[in-house]
Amino acid sequence: MAITLVNPNGLPEIDAYRQVSIATGSKLLFIAGQVAWDAGGVTVGEGDLAAQVEQCYYNIATALTGVGASFDDVARLTVYVVNWTPDKMPLLMEGLGRAAAKLGVTATPPATLLGVAALDVPEHLVEVEATAVLD
């Protein structure tokens, strides 16, 4: 495995992710931001942030699998949420939890959460992009 996730001494431990990812591989994967589209381009979970987060993670998993990778290879995630306010965190974590359970994911790479005004289409509430490293 090319990724080691750690929480260095002196930084807070956060349940949702690790503070640092150490990559030792040589092939970088940059996965475009994934929105809540199914394989046919239909929005999943319109108006439901948790359902859309879940679909975004399924799409990331599909992209990883398609190139011979898995969530264990993810070095970093960036999550963009439309009109972010802290009261949306439980819905975001619910969607993430459901996706992680279904996908069997336990890795928690460093992540950044950004509030944005809008995404590509009005129905999309969240977008997730990933960077992964392979040996």
Description:
By secondary structure, this protein is an alpha+beta fold. The protein has one domain (3-134): 60s Ribosomal Protein L30, Chain: A (2-Layer Sandwich), CATH 3.30.1330.40. The chain has 2 helices and 6 strands, in the order βββαβαββ. The protein has helices spanning 49-66, 89-103, and strands spanning 3-6, 20-23, 27-34, 74-82, 111-116, 126-134. A 4-stranded mixed beta sheet has the order 3-6-4-5. A two-stranded antiparallel ribbon has the order 1-2. The longest helix is centred in the middle third of the chain and has 18 residues, at 49-66. The N and C termini lie close together (7 Å).
Give me some keywords for this one.
135 residues; alpha+beta; two-stranded antiparallel ribbon; 6 strands; 24% helix
Q: Strand order, biggest sheet? A: 3-6-4-5
pLDDT < 50 stretches:
none
Largest sheet: 4 strands, mixed
Radius of gyration: 15 Å
The number of distinct β-strands equals 6
Please identify which CATH superfamily we are dealing with: RutC-like
Helix and strand content put the structural class at alpha+beta
Tell me the count of domains. Answer: 1
* Distance, first to last CA: 7 Å
Counted by DSSP, the helix tally is 2
Q: Which range best describes the helical content: under 10%, 10-25%, 25-40%, 40-55%, 55-70% or over 70%?
A: 10-25%
The gist of it:
The chain has 135 residues and is an alpha+beta fold. Helix content is 24%, strand content 30%. It has helices at 49-66, 89-103, and strands at residues 3-6, 20-23, 27-34, 74-82, 111-116, 126-134.
